[in-house]
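Annotated sample (chain length 261).
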Amino acid sequence: DSGIKTWSGRTQDSRNKDSIHVLDFKTAGVTDQVAIQNAVNYCLSNNRTLNWDGANLTSTGNILNFWGVDHNGRGSVTRNGNKFLISPILAQETEIVVKSNGLTVNDGLTEEFPTTMKQAFSYLSTIGNKSAHGVWRIRIKGAISSAAVKAPTLPIFANPLEIAGDDVADKSEPTSVWSGLNQATYAVNFNRVTVNIKIKNLTLQDWLRTGGNSGGFVFDTNCNVFVENCRFRRMNIGIWTQKSYLNVQNSEFTDIDTFAC
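Output written by the structure step:
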């Protein structure tokens, strides 16, 4: 009978859908962590979507290949008290965490298993129409010296995608710092990538000042850019824009050749 409910409270009709529900793997005696990893492994191997409706599970470790499958549904992963929402709505926030010890194999769902800047952008490129809801954020915690990023093609974000350092009091010195270690390039290059973005509570410094253009950010092709409480130090160009809207508030540009162009 297609209406008979399984032990997890789901009907057989639900089980027969194209997508696989994460709770299908939460059998008796199986921890949430193992269930999530098994579900991801299955969907990755069988090219299936992983549904999270009604599932709020606890993770105790890194989830390998989490971003290698498509996720949908209103559910969450909680790790050490920090919650990652699978499909945020309205003003709900969800973030990918970057730290100095970030690894490309880490899921970045919480700071216990942070990833890199480049990988965070790669993850965001996979979220599809989930970008039409909620607030998506790359959270930079503490000081990093991550390599420069050429932004991949991103989905359209209804609310600005955020690149944010740790929260600080209004107009206070940011505690999150991204050092370029004198790389002769830009921290993030959005050339030919349309994005609606907000950058806040972040210091960018030490991107090579000689031998060509280098610095903070490049925006091209109909970008909407909001910069709030940031510091740009010791670089050639702070923000380079073309055919884009730029709004800078409560920010400082020190020892650079051009703050924005």
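Annotation: Residues 32-46 form the longest helix (15 residues).
Annotation: The longest strand covers residues 224-242.
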